[in-house]
Amino acid sequence: MTNFMELAKEQRYSVRKFSDRAVEKEKLDLILEAGRIAPTACNYQPQRILVIENDAARDKIKQCTSCHFDAPVVMMICYDKTTCWKNRTNQTVGGDVDASIIITHMMLEAAELGLGSTWVGAFNHQKARELFEIPDYLVPVALLPIGYPAEGVEPHPWHYKRFDLDHTVFYNSFDGITEGEAH
Alpha-carbon distance 128 to 60, whole Å? Predict the structure, then answer.
């Protein structure tokens, strides 16, 4: 069994070059299950996930982004704005947060299974809506290319660059922090 910190620090990294090896259905099902069991606000489970794995659909993704990395599978994670939690205090919706939690669970499961992935927010949402006939009540959040990393692929050097906790964590107050200090 994998140690979580090892999985999060070392094994999971953004893969931007995939082999052409197909991803087994059993592994896709485990990744989707990891997303299904992820926590969502009030457990409303607003996620709607489009699995893109045939050539025609992958060609459509290539029209929406250059960040497809020729992955054998791309998942488009959306949320249903009619079913997601709404914050009555400030009128925001929790769909983006829910989708983010779900994507994180799926990325970690993919890494545990020996697969690579990368979070892609840089895509033409409107084009994706048109090409995949996404109804108005669904909001695309991100693409998740998944596959076996190509031979020789390694984490980008920035993957290992992390601020110390005392740079990003504050107890009881933000007193003393100045604007821009977190960069």
Answer: 8
* pTM of the entire predicted model: 0.91
Which stretches of the chain drop beneath a pLDDT of 50? 182-183
Q: Which residues contact 130 (CB under 8 A, 6 or more apart)?
A: none
- Mind spelling out the 3-state secondary structure of 105-173? HHHHHHHHCCCEECCECCCCHHHHHHHCCCCCCEEEEEEEEEECECCCCCCCHHHHCCCCHHHHCCCCC
DSSP state for residue 9 in the 8-state scheme: I
Q: How far apart are CA 158 and CA 39, in angstroms?
A: 29
**114-166 pLDDT, tens digit each:** 999 999 999 999 999 999 999 999 999 999 999 999 999 988 888 888 899 98
Quote the CA–CA distance of 62 and 70 in Å, as a whole number.
Answer: 9
List the structure tokens of 178: 């100045």
Residue 56 corresponds to which tokens in the numbers above? 């025609």
Q: CA–CA separation, 96 vs 141, rounded Å?
A: 7
Place of tokens 């197909």: 22
Mean pLDDT over the full length of the chain? 93
Give the span between the Cα atoms of 113 and 143, in whole angstroms: 19
